[in-house]
Design brief:
Number of domains: 2
Shape: globular
Number of helices: 11
Structural class: alpha/beta
Strand content: 15-25%
Distance between the termini: 44 Å
Order of helices and strands: EHEHEHEEHEEEEEHHEHHHHH
Radius of gyration: 18 Å
CATH superfamily of the largest domain: Spore Coat Polysaccharide Biosynthesis Protein SpsA, Chain A
Oligomer: single chain
CATH topology of the largest domain: Spore Coat Polysaccharide Biosynthesis Protein SpsA, Chain A
Helix content: 25-40%
Length: 290
Amino acid sequence: MGLNSRVSIIIPCKNEGKYIDDTLASLTAAHNRTEYEIIVVDDASEDNCCVGLTDRYPIKLVRTSGVGSAQARNEGAKKAQGEILVFCDGHIFVENHWLDNLLEPLHNRRLDVICPAIAPSDNVANVGYGQSLNETLGVVWYTDMVQISPVAVGPGACLAVRRGVFQRSQGFESGFQVWGYEDIEFSIKLWLLGYQVWVQPGVKVLHVFRQFHPYRVLMEHVNYNLLRMALLHFNEKRVERVIELLKNQPVIEKTLTRSFFSDVMEKRSLYRKLRLYNDDWFFRKFGIPF
């Protein structure tokens, strides 16, 4: 690790308990040739999980006031020095040279975004190679991949992006609430803007898939983010389909009102001007039946 690192590893943290310590121990113990810095964004944790981290590990600690998962990532990026930003969850484990091998395609093939294979920490043989979406916009993992390939969605558990691409795409969606759809929206936006999201199947990162969030996430938050994503990037028919999916959800009227009275339509107009492809192209490219 160095002060003038070319790579910044950014970890949003909210009530991670012992996992953030385990993650930092794994990251700093792994051998890599790549110079990097680690930035932990403590988004108003209430369990003291970030207390003492700077004493035990060579990291930067950024504190935010409960801004949510997407915006915590953005705040970490603002403090980053690296030309490449690697966003990781605070509950992962890595192998030696994971960073060298993950970033190799960004250096040699001039790709924009790369993610590793992801496996549950308690079932390491069950490997996923990036994600696609199903007919209700639920996540579907690619399960068979032997060479570097494009994927519809780069999982937020670990995702590397060129700093310039991140800035030109305006980063993760700043209007999202708490948690939900951050990586999906980011990936769709990147593809529509003309960038590409790939997976490096030769690198495997282990991820703790928790049964419950260690902080309060309501379906209202998740539904709001889904609707906002649709309003930002989908055509009118797909927006109607999303509203149909949500029609029986609690407080849907409140969700609709909040969405339409936010800045979403202004952003929608901006993305329409900037993007190279429309959502029909994206759903067709990846065979997503929505």
